[in-house]
Write a structure and sequence with these properties.
GO terms for molecular function: hydrolase activity, hydrolyzing O-glycosyl compounds. The chain is an all-beta fold. 0% of the residues lie in helices and 53% in strands. The chain has a 19-stranded mixed β-sheet that branches.
């Protein structure tokens, strides 16, 4: 199913009594990597942390989150006496696993009374605070204040530790839907944009420019809290499932994306920036031939992928770096001059790969200048 674009205009509220059919990624080539269908009898604490912060009008209780009947339910309660200084309590789940580019989706039914702020969103964190120093990228797939039963906010925030990064592409609009009924919410996050959908219909596209945000790994949050004003009654928020599909694969020389990276010869951390400023680039012993760096992807699906390497342009770089791409048809070789032009992605061609980790990119230094290694990507075609 491909997305249809639906304008954010006001139309009559659709009062659904049956959940719409589950949506799916907007194009082919995605592989399901993470999901919870909430089919058990309790939250899976090997997969999830509870949201436990105190924010706005409520404190968040783990005991407010239950699983049963194929649903995750957040009970939104009045507290007397106050709990952690608040007269209301909310809650939610935050995935222990952090994920990157791909398609995220949930189906949710929002609170029936006013004063509750329910969200499906992604940001680095464990749920103990929403203001951790590790937060940089925040992607809000769905935000709704239940005083407005059909208003949705979707967008991207750039944070700088405890401070506001100052760039917030987003859209708040009248969905034309009764969000107190079941609806499906999705976000397709790529290196250049985030596309937000409701019930499989594209509603808004936010730019995600690499020179403005880091390429974070983000945790999934399914939460509801009393906000922005004091809640006017108890209620519930419910989630039917949450799923994440991956299509493209990014490998780096450190951090979570370094799972398939290896070196031979002598390599050192460089002060020259790579594609992600939080991840240092590497350089091999200068004027030495035969140093290698290898990036080996774990592809979830066989298919055609365009392969890129991040070229680090520097006057002291290797002018004749060799890149070998091992694929189903053999090995393709490309030479890249790292001394000229600007830093950026350089294509190493489009090739067919099997699922798994048999395919790879290998850099070999030529013996002139300093070979530099940072990141590669496999983009599904």
């Amino acid at each position: 199913m491909r997305w249809r674009v639906l304008a954010a205009t006001a139309v009559a509220v659709t009062a659904l009594t049956v959940a719409p059919a589950a949506a799916q990624p907007p194009t082919t080539g995605y592989t399901l990597v993470f999901s919870d269908e909430f089919s058990g009898s309790a939250p899976n604490t090997s997969v999830w942390n509870f949201r436990t912060d105190v924010k706005a009008g409520s404190a968040q209780r783990p005991s407010n989150v239950t699983v049963g009947g194929g649903l995750m339910t957040i009970d939104l309660k009045a507290e007397s006496p106050p709990y952690q200084g608040k007269n209301w309590s909310g809650g939610g789940l935050v995935s222990k696993r952090a994920l990157r580019y791909g398609y995220y989706e949930t189906r949710a039914k929002l609170p029936a009374v006013g004063g509750w702020h329910t969200s499906f969103w992604m940001m680095a964190g464990d749920g103990s605070t929403t203001f951790g120093p590790q937060r940089r990228t925040e992607i809000d797939v769905l935000e709704n204040d239940s005083v407005n039963a059909r208003t949705i906010h979707s967008g991207v925030h750039a944070w700088n530790g405890e401070g506001d990064g100052g760039h917030h592409p987003g859209s708040t609009y009248d969905s034309g839907l009764d969000l107190r009924q079941w609806h499906t919410y999705g976000a397709d996050w790529s290196e250049t944009s985030v596309k937000f959908s409701v019930d499989g219909q594209l509603r808004y596209t936010a730019p995600y420019t690499p020179d403005q945000w880091t390429h974070d790994y983000l945790n999934i949050w399914l939460t509801s809290i009393a906000y922005p004003t004091t809640a006017n009654g108890p209620s519930t928020a419910q989630f039917d499932y949450v799923r994440y599909w991956q299509k493209d694969y990014y490998l780096d020389n450190d951090g979570p994306a370094a799972y398939g990276y290896g070196e031979s010869g002598a390599w050192y951390d460089s002060t020259v920036d790579g594609w992600n400023f939080t991840s240092p680039s590497r350089y091999a012993t200068c004027h030495t031939a035969g140093n290698t760096a290898t990036w080996r992807a774990r592809l979830g699906a066989a298919g055609s992928y365009q392969v890129y390497v991040w070229k680090i342009a520097h006057s002291g770089s290797d002018p004749n770096t060799r890149y070998d791409v091992a694929h189903q048809g053999g090995v393709a070789t490309t030479r890249v001059d790292g001394t000229g032009g600007s830093s950026g992605w350089v294509s190493l061609g489009t090739h067919t790969f099997a699922a798994g980790d048999s395919g790879y990119v290998r850099l070999t230094s030529s013996g002139t200048g300093c070979a530099r290694a940072d990141a590669v990507k496999f983009v599904r075609r």
